[in-house]
Amino acid sequence: MRQLQFPLGVNYWPAGKAMYWWQDFEAAEVEQDFCRLADAGFQVVRVFLAWEDFQPTPHKISTRCLNHLVAVAEVAANCKILIQPTFFCGHMSGVNWMPEWMLGGPAQGRFPVMSSGKLSHLEIRNYYSDREIIKAQKLQCREVAQVLKGHPALWGYDLGNESSNCVIPPNRQAARDWLAAVVGELKGVHDVPVTIGLHAEDLEEDRKLGPADAALYCDFLCMHGYPFYLDWVDHPLDTKVLPFLGLITNWLGGKRVLFQEFGVSDQILQQEFPGEIEEGGALYYRKALHLLREAGMWGAFAWCYSDYQPHLFGKPPLKENPHERYFGLFKADGSHKKAVSVFQEFAKEMKDSADCDVCCDACAAGEVSWLKGEDPQRFYDNPLSELIRLYNEWLVVGC
User: Fold this and answer.
1) pLDDT of residue 361
2) Which of 38, 219, 375, 391 is the most buried (most CB within 10 A)?
3) What separation in angstroms does the CA of 300 have from each of 250, 344, 357?
4) Distance CA 103, CA 121 (A)
5) Do 8 and 347 touch, CB atoms closer than 8 A?
6) Cα-trace Rg, the chain
7) Cα–Cα distance, 91 to 165 (Å, whole number)
């Protein structure tokens, strides 16, 4: 992995394809997007391997999709940008996308399931405890790692996006055994950094795979945070909660933290900045980036690259979740919003500063006064109450 001082990245789906990208792949489209992102100062693009497309059966990985992924890596290298492929996708924008072989009978889960072109409510088999599924996942890891082995554009791997929204391990040991299996498969091919995309709900609840579990096998930790999704935050654009979530992740896991998702929908901005949506978005990102950096986060990835084109609005997940249509740093036509200039300025600051390293270890629990005396081993006894209590303390003495 190329060493980056402060990895500045973005989460990517194409504006005109969204989650249907791999079914209608165009390398020229990706090249245009990636070069646009590189020009805006981004160093890493997080891409998602749609599980159903990459693994249509437990025993078969799509050669077509593997070839597309290699093409993505080639484009990235040409644009002088890096990629972070995310496996087993999985949960995305309020819908769980699954291959048919991963599904059981009817079930009223929190999120609908998209499979074989249909949206329904079905049980998802638990891949933390089902040996046949773990075997299938290891196959996907192995074949993806083999085609990308040694590629100069490969920055690292991500084991899943907010996976606890799909299934929860039956117990903590099952989660750790799963991590050992899939991380071992990847590193057996090529020793590149591996992480997993945890989110705020993995702190609010004990979902049996938290920062301490991930830290046993992952090279670094990740956190996702959106204040407008947090019931215990007073303001939908509270940027202070972002570094707080990262600091708690570091405290619980003891490893550096990439803040892998943060962003805001234009629908939220319209409520808070009527008539000045782009200005509001730029302000939010500017505050968030500097707070994350000052708190010692290792890097930050925006959600997301682009608004989606209107022809997708009648399809999942944008039909069911209209706010997801407008999270982009770029508009659906490819023109940039004012927030893009914030990232350009931030990237320049990072490049120009001779002493821009805030030590990532500075956010270790032993060095943060407001966590002195707190026991990370007890956090999950009552996680939501602890999270709220610690946040209120941090607002007073820590931030």
Assistant:
1) 46
2) 391
3) 15, 14, 14
4) 10
5) yes
6) 20
7) 6
Domains with residue ranges and CATH for the chain: 8-361 (3.20.20.80)
Q: Give the whole-angstrom CA distance, residue 71 versus residue 175.
A: 33
- For the whole model, what pTM was predicted? 0.96
Given a contact cutoff of 8 angstroms between Cβ atoms, the answer to whether 335 and 40 are in contact is no
User: For the stretch 60-75, what's the b/e string if a residue is b when 16 or more beta carbons lie within 10 angstroms of its beta carbon?
Assistant: ebbeebbebbeebbbb
- The DSSP annotation for 268-323 comes to HHHHHSTT-HHHHHHHHHHHHHHHHHHTT-SEEEES-SBPPPGGGTTSTTTTT-GG
DSSP state of 397: I
Q: Locate tokens 């709900």: which residue?
A: 201
pLDDT at 398: 64
What is the Cα–Cα distance from 168 to 128, expressed in whole angstroms? 8
Which is nearest to 134 in space by CA: 88, 74, 68?
A: 88
Cα–Cα distance measured from residue 78 to residue 39, given in angstroms and rounded to the nearest whole number: 13
Distances from the Cα of 91 to the Cαs of 165, 321, 351, in angstroms?
Answer: 6, 14, 35
List, for residues 200-244, the tens digit of each pLDDT value. 999 999 999 999 999 999 999 999 999 999 999 999 999 999 999
